Amino acid sequence: MKKIVIASDHGGFSLKEKIRPYLEKSGYRIKDLGTCSKESCDYPRFAYALAKEVSSGRYRQGILICKSGIGNSIVANRFPGVRAALCYGIKAARLSRRHNDSNVLVLGASFVNTALAKRIVGVWLNTRFEGGRHRRRLNQIKNIEREIRSRR
């Protein structure tokens, strides 16, 4: 069975709860890192927890949801090996996988309805990395990550 990690803040909670059954029907075992209600909370805590799971290799892919998606993207992309892509549309989701081998999909609940979010998730999960010239660019990103870590 495929597995995926998912998390949201209060602004993304309702959409997360609608995406979960879609993922389950698609054959995914889900690790839900929260939040568990619409009660106000701080998104960095959830983005950190999810990005840590992906960065460590415990999960190959994750989905983050908040109101705009911007804050989650900022937090997640601080982790080595995480390539979080904020996608408001199908084409962006497809290209984020084909060209960037994104491993975290970020959704902004204020910008996508449930039907569009499910389509974005489906395309993102089913699109494969093209490799080729894009592999060279990913290797450059890995080199940048190594250089940054070595400076610390």
Description:
- About 50% of the residues lie in helices and about 15% in strands.
- With about 150 residues, the chain is α/β, with parallel strands linked by helices.
- The chain has one domain: Ribose 5-phosphate Isomerase B, Chain: A (3-Layer(aba) Sandwich).
- Helix 1 links the parallel strand 1 and strand 2.
- Helix 1 packs across helix 5, helix 2 crosses helix 3 and helix 4 runs parallel beside helix 5.
- The longest helix is centred in the last third of the chain and has 19 residues.
- The protein is globular.
Describe the SSE topology:
Blueprint lengths: L1 E7 L4 H13 L2 E5 L10 H13 L6 E5 L3 H7 L7 E3 L3 H9 L5 E5 L5 H13 L6 H19 L1
Parallel strand pairs: 1-2, 1-3, 3-5, 4-5
